[in-house]
Amino acid sequence: MREERETPKPWKKTEVIGKPMPRVDAYERVSGSAIYPSDTSLPDMLYGAILRCPHAHAKVLDIDTREAEKMPGVRAVIKGDTHGASVEWPYLRGFKTKLFDSHCRHEGEEVAAVAAETPYQAWDAIKAIKVKYEILPFVVDERKALESGAPAIHAGGNRSGETQTYERGNVEKGFAEADVVLEETYRTESELHTPMELHGCVARWDGDRLTVWESTQGVYSVQARVAEVLGLPLANVRVIGPYMGGGFGSKLQAGKYTIIAALLSKKTARPVKVFLTREETFLCVGNRPPSNMTLKAGVKKDGTLTALEFSCIGTGGAYPAGGTSLVDWLVRDLYQCPNVRTKLTDVYINAGPSRPCRAPGHPQGAWALEQMIAALAEAIKMDPVEIRLKNIPLYSQAREGNPPYTSTGLKECLKEGAKAFGWKEALKKASEANARGGSLRRGVGMASGLWVAGGGGPPSTILIKLFSDGSVNLNMGASDIGTGTKTVMAMVVSEELGVPTKKIQIEHADTRTTQYATPSGGSKTVPTEAPAVRAAALHVKQQLLEMASRELKTEADQLNLINGEILSTIDPTKKIKISGLSELKRQGVILGVGYRGPNPDKKVVNPFAAQFCEVEVNIQTGEVKVLRFLAAQESGRVMNRLTYDNQVVGGITWGVGLALTEARILDAQQTGKMVNRNWHDYKIPTALDVPAEVISLPIEPEDTEANTTGAKGLGEPVTIPTAAAIANAVYHAIGIRITRTPINPLTLCPLFAARRKEG
Ligand code: MOS
Q: How many Cα atoms are found within 13 Å in the side-chain-facing hemisphere of 480?
């Protein structure tokens, strides 16, 4: 079945790829006819609600559900000892708890659940459940979790796994060789994913087969988790997620809510819908963990980095969840540096578990590293762009064997970005304006970054059916998480088969009907799936040309496929339309199969970036306004200029949030509870916070090695340098380095007041 095929050659000139093409599903999305999982409504459907522990840390002593069970419309109440509900929920490193664990280690931990005829009846019943808690002392500050006397969240204490260390070269020697050594501590606050569509699903059983309509980044990963937790064969679990309203890493997996919906549905023999409230999602379905970082760096007068030493204390919350994952990656690998040491300490606190969040670890690491590089540049009186150019990595230093990158556009990002932004002029103008005084201060700043991944495979399998009228079905298991994946895949088919995208229908994200795919995350959906789509399209094309060669009585390699017509390259009279092929009419369909091969051996596929921005800071009010932003992104080939620019705007918006507005606030003094668990008190950037001018500047080296499309992924790389670039611009504006997020009037006003006092 899986016959040998030639590896397709890299595209030279493209007709469709790279063009700004509106989304193939734009109409459905804007008209409201797209049915998201949260829109799903089935006949006879019940609504589930979850009772959650209101305390930061408590033991459940007793649950009395008698009153709730008698309430109108209530069809099921489940808790830890309900038949079938005593299942285990897995975290990282093989760690498990009960789905309803009597030891509640964070506010919002699941205690019981109800299914009722209406959501209101379900919530009324939740309120009627009486729980006796033993309230335990809590710790919600990761900097205090290892102090003696801190309440132990787990029997073994508050260390989450071993401290992770990395070392190369001789750091002490590196510092001794430096002309300047600086050391600084940095902190980034925890951010919440808070996607537009809430987390949840609809679950329905047909005998021993379960179907779940879930808002997810990966139907197959949800299938695997549900089957594992419920002890079902994979084949009995169908997961469907055709549209989804954002995940950013928080929907790479099933949630406890998925299992709860399935259990309630089983018990009632009716479909059950469980979608969380906004407040629940703030507490329970992930976050970008807070990072407390120290960075010491050495540099020579000529800008050569001699040593970097980094440590981070972080937390994935109350369970093993990767609280310090990848926070040190940029320190290890963004710049050429022979001597590097890093140390990551992950601890438990009484807060909801973290989940991967748009470029896990990287924006935090960039916040520290990219501010430090700016400070080093200032100390040796070198331009911040220059110092970075001086230390461009030639290969990945942090990986075994120092493999080279298939392409690295960091140098071009820096050079072309600075030029397009007008870096030198902007620096000068801002400094001149500030010399004149006044309460509005201008600053420009920049930062760079790379992203640790660039797609890969296998597995990815794609089926393409070409029908006799020239229309196409594309079958792909991967989810389009709002980034425009479907559109890019249709463009790949269109490029190879000459079929307009409106004649291409895409079936995707359904474990029963579409092919296996890994979840859409890591900015890998395009670089992983598009080569498989291309292979499937070429498989169709090969069969089509062979068919035409029989009909036209000529060799297949003398035929071309252009705009739905097959033409001889030698004899212009020999041509036939796809719809005119009698063999195809008889056969009905040509089936093409495409697989994703592995990335090149001993090479690394990573995207790079450099970003530049200009800010205005009001030194009376502490307001920070980002005036303009330019993102020079090297993500290999631009597949669709429109969806590309969308990712740039989205990534920068996220970075503006990290830098200026967002922070989870836990009440460390009295309750341990989250005090800003809604969109009013938790500030995501609005249109007023995002610069009116965001310029996307793609840097496109020809990468013929990354994969057969040359695309390397964009969603995450964009957001990595953004916050640090803003912090550097703020420093330029006010001369005070802000090392903690968010930079807002609460942070700035006391600093301005202190400076006025000092005169
Ligand atoms: Mo991403 S944080 O891998 O969805």
A: 25
pTM: 0.98
> In the chain, pLDDT over 70 holds for what percent of residues?
99
**Shortest-distance atom of ligand 1 to CA 217:** 4
Q: What is the pLDDT of residue 3?
A: 61
- Among 252, 658, 719, the mutation site with the greatest number of ligand 1 atoms within 8 A of its Cβ is 252
Distance, CA of 66 to CA of 64 (rounded, Å): 6
Buried b (16+ CB within 10 A) or exposed e, 117-150: beeebbbbbbebbebebeebebbbbbeebeeeeb
Atom of ligand 1 nearest to the CA of 716: 1
Q: What is the pLDDT at residue 1?
A: 46
Contact (CB, 8 A) for 248 and 684: no
Report the range of poorest mean pLDDT among 247-256, 291-300, 564-573, 727-736: 564-573
Please report, as a single letter, which amino acid is at residue 741.
T
Bridge pairing between strands 504-508 and 472-476? parallel
- Which residues, other chains included, contact 418 with Cβ-Cβ below 8 Å and sequence gap of 6+? 385, 424, 446, 610, 612
**Whole-number Å distance between alpha carbons of 125 and 122:** 5
**Atom 4 (ligand 1) nearest CA:** 249
Q: With a cut of 90, say whether residue 260 has pLDDT above it.
A: yes
How many residues would you count in the chain?
A: 759
